[in-house]
Structures are given as structure tokens and as C-alpha cells.
Amino acid sequence: MSGIETIKSAYDTYLxxxxxxRKALAGLLIxxxxxxxxxxxxxxxxxxxxxxxxxxxxxxxxxxxxGTDYFxxxxxxxxxxxTRVVLAVTFLPALIGTILATSIGIAAGYIGGIPGRVLxxxxxxxxxxxxxxxxxLMAAFFREAxxxxxxxxxxxxxxxxxxxxxxxxxxxxxSMEFVEAAEILELGKFHIxxxxxxxxLMPYIFIQFVNMIRAAFGASQGLMFLxxxxxxxxxWGVMLNIAVYQSxxxxxxxxxxxPLSILVFMILLLLGFVLVSYGVEETFNPRLRKxx
Length: 292
Hints:
With about 290 residues, the chain is mostly helical. The chain has helices spanning about 5-20, 20-45, 75-110, 115-130, 130-140, 145-155, 160-175, 175-185, 190-225, 235-245, 255-285. The longest helix has about 35 residues, at about 190-225.
């Protein structure tokens, strides 16, 4: 099978059914908007961080679509420039977590014996540890972490539950006739895992990836809001912290557009993730699948 045929097959199997789902399609359109905003927005609306207190807490206008902050800086431009790092610390932890969950989950479900029990024990340990308090401690320790290290820190506390789900699916697939036939033919573990099991696991892996995106978004925003990570003035969590705690915007009636604008963008992006998550589950979960 050529590369083009492989891409077309993957599109027909996974992406096309998702696009046909209304919830997933709406979510994808929202996420596409934010991706485009992150890629080209900074070039259309250059960031200007010079303070001008004469423009402090201005309401939305043609010049400032979302108003200005305590320092008289345009809120919309800050949100646009923060979109790129927000998406980076959302998708990258989910990708790393998916790789960890898939690798450990398949190994725990397929290997069996003492190694399998050890891996399942590790998964159970990570599932019992309160994830957000542990994440707070690690983030405080690695306060100056770059995006890659931060993504690994977040991913460490995302992979366990998806790994448990994938391991359970592998255990159920091991008893299937096609797996038993491959083992009798001694086709090897590599062939069985990647040629026999993986096609059946992909929908579950896809669902777990989308769910981890939602979790990573909440974790990264929470850490930034609490000031436990490297300061980035355009990150939405930092902007919300400044709006709520440092600038006193909540106590100035005409400044309500400042924190409200940040919250609206947060909610809209999270809505996109939620809609895609629900749509993917409805598409690939037989119990939730809807035929239109």
C-alpha cells in the first residue's frame, strides 16, 4: 500500500466518520479557528506591550475589540499572541501522554505474567495518587521549565487512566480468534501488536487522546493561573490572574470586559475540545454511536 493509499485509508476509517458527526464537526471548526488564530494572528495583530494608563480599562471598541487592561494594553492582541503557547501546552502533553498510555497499556495487557502484573501495578499506583496536588508540587519544583519539560510534567499525570483502558481492551482482544491464529503461526509479537491489535485499538487511543487534550488544557491553565510556571504575560492563565487578583478589574464595573473576554476565549476553546471528545466517542463507541 502506497503512502497516499495509507493516508486515504486512515481518513476514511477515522477522520471521515468524525467529521460526519455534528458535535465533532462543530468542535473541529472551533479548534480550526484557534489554530489559524495562533498561526497567522500574531502577524495581523502585532503585540504592543507599552503601558498607557490614559487608556486603562477601556471598553470594547473598533480600535480595541476586547478593550484594554490595567496598563492600557489591548486585550485582544494579548489573547491572540497567547493562543500559540496555550495550544502548545495543551496538545503536546496530550501527545506525550497518549504515547505513554499506549505503550504501557499494550505491554500491560499483552505481555502477561510477572512483567504484566508489575506494569498494571505501576498504572494503579499512578491512578491512586492525587494528580493535581502532585502536579502542583512538580510544577513548583520545575518553575522555570520550558514548554517541552512542562508538557512531560503534565503528561506524567495524564497517562494512567487511558493506559488502564487500553490494557483492558488488549486483554479482551487477546482471546479473539485472529490473535490466537497469529500466535499459532508464530508471527511474532511485533506483528501481532502492530498488525493485528493496533487497528482495533486505534479508536480507543483516539478517544483517550482527545480526552487528554481536555485534561491538559485544564491543568496548564490552572498552573499558569496559580503562578507556578514560568511567567508569560500573554498566556491566558496569567492574564486571568492579573485581571482577577493584581489589577482589581473585578471591583471596577466598567472593567468587567477585561476578565470576561479571557474567560470567553477559555470557555470557547474548552467547548471545542468537549464537542470533539463527545463526537469522537459517539462515532467509535458502539454504545453511543448514532446513525443519522
